[in-house]
């Protein structure tokens, strides 16, 4: 009879990955990876970890809450802070162990009376991209470990942090700026391996970004353009810009681009809320070079639930902003109230029951995944 190690080796990494992809939760995957060295070697593959993450959007990675800036009139800018999203004790222990005010970052040349100099620009896979209002330098920080990396200053009108879903220590920062002396946009990219900016793409586009917040899916970044009729996409693999037409009803409401399926193919999906119902639309290329948009999913109506949580039927007087979709939850802002809806159970939660959330600088935050011991080796890449 062959020893167990030899039996496992006969299966091969590819077959083991096809078995592991069927595990129901990330916790099960971690337990399997720790069973023996062949299992760990098979799991430490960046393509496999990305595939597993897409297959388990509701549990992978673990959602912590929203990093929020809360500026108040006539007072110094408050430090960022976290509004927890989950009541579980384990999540609370993780949150309490972190520093979501980023007090560990440098405050040189910034007066104490002026408040916190660091502004959050993006948050992905447990890492946060920040800008210093004092030095204009950038930083990527981990609020749980208090580790951070300083990045060179790069003026821009839009920023994004692209985290590798297979290796939690790898990231890419993207800066979108205006072209000098001519209309259009320029894209600059910085990798965690080199930590220097390089211009990688340009676009002779007349419109400006409608907001600095980046949407992200399928290795691409998206920004809505002024006017609302179109959005610009920057593809981080091909390093190319694309301008995409949007459905007319999206001109005045918020949405987020989402990933659907294991490989992200089959069209561009976006999620929005209309008539207090969550809607998912798919855009498929047509023969004219544009996108044809089709409604593919529609939820129950959340009008009554929102009215009960706010304590008033007049909440409809405020706009309803879709902040983002992260870890199987959509985050919404109505006036100064922040909500989350679990897309699997359709349960709505108010995240700011005691304090109001007047800021539009809201960034959903997750714990970094995969854990560091699952980061791929060179052989696993």
Shape: globular
Mean pLDDT: 84
Helix content: 10-25%
Strand elements, count = 23
Kindly provide the radius of gyration, computed on alpha-carbon positions and rounded to a whole number of angstroms: 22 Å
Biggest sheet features: 4 strands, antiparallel
Number of helices: 6
Strand content: 35-45%
| SSE arrangement, N to C | HHHHEEHEEEEEEEEEEEEEEEEHEEEEE
Structural class: alpha+beta
Strand order of the largest sheet: 3-4-5-6
For the termini, the CA-CA separation is: 33 Å
Low-confidence blocks of residues: none
Question: Can you tell me about this structure?
Answer:
The protein is an alpha+beta fold. It contains six helices and 23 strands. The protein has helices spanning 4-20, 26-33, 37-43, 46-55, 89-96, 303-310; strands at 63-68, 81-84, 118-124, 127-132, 138-142, 147-151, 158-163, 171-178, 185-191, 198-203, 215-217, 220-224, 230-235, 240-245, 255-258, 268-274, 277-285, 291-301, 320-326, 329-334, 337-342, 348-350, 362-366. The strands form six sheets. The chain has a four-stranded antiparallel sheet with strand order 3-4-5-6, with no helix packed on it. A hairpin with a 6-residue loop joins strand 9 (185-191) and strand 10 (198-203). Helix 1 (4-20) runs parallel beside helix 3. The protein is globular. The two termini are 33 Å apart. The mean pLDDT is 84.
């Amino acid at each position: 009879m062959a020893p167990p190690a030899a039996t496992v080796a006969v299966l091969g990494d590819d077959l083991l990955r096809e078995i592991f992809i069927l595990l129901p939760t990330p916790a099960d995957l971690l337990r399997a990876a720790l069973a023996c060295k062949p299992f760990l070697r098979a799991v430490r593959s960046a393509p496999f970890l990305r595939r597993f993450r897409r297959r388990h959007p509701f549990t992978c990675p673990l959602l912590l809450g929203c990093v929020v800036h809360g500026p108040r009139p006539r007072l110094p800018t408050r430090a960022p802070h976290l509004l927890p999203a989950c009541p579980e004790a384990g999540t609370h222990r993780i949150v309490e162990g972190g520093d979501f005010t980023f007090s560990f970052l440098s405050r040189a040349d910034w007066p104490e009376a002026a408040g916190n100099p660091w502004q959050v620009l993006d948050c992905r896979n447990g890492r946060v991209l920040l800008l210093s209002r004092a030095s204009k330098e950038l930083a990527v920080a981990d609020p749980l470990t208090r580790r951070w990396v300083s990045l060179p200053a790069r003026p821009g009108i839009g920023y994004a942090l692209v985290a590798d879903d297979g290796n939690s220590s790898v990231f890419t920062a993207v800066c979108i700026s205006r072209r000098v002396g001519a209309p259009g946009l320029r894209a600059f990219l910085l990798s965690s391996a080199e930590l220097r900016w390089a211009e990688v793409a340009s676009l002779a586009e007349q419109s400006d970004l409608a907001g600095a917040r980046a949407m992200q899916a399928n290795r691409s970044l998206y920004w809505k353009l002024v006017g609302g009729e179109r959005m610009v996409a920057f593809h981080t693999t091909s390093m190319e810009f694309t301008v995409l037409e949007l459905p007319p009803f999206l001109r005045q409401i918020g949405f987020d681009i989402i990933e659907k399926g294991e490989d992200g193919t089959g069209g561009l999906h976006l999620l929005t809320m209309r008539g207090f119902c969550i809607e998912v639309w798919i855009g498929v290329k047509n023969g004219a070079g544009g996108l044809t948009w089709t409604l593919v999913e529609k939820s129950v109506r959340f009008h009554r639930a929102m009215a009960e949580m706010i304590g008033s039927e007049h909440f409809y007087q405020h706009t309803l902003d879709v902040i983002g979709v992260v870890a199987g939850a959509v985050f919404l802002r109505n006036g100064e109230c922040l909500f989350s809806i679990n897309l699997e159970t359709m349960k709505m939660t108010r995240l700011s029951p005691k304090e109001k959330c007047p800021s539009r600088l809201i960034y959903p935050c997750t714990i970094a995944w995969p854990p560091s011991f699952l980061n791929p080796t060179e052989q696993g890449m």
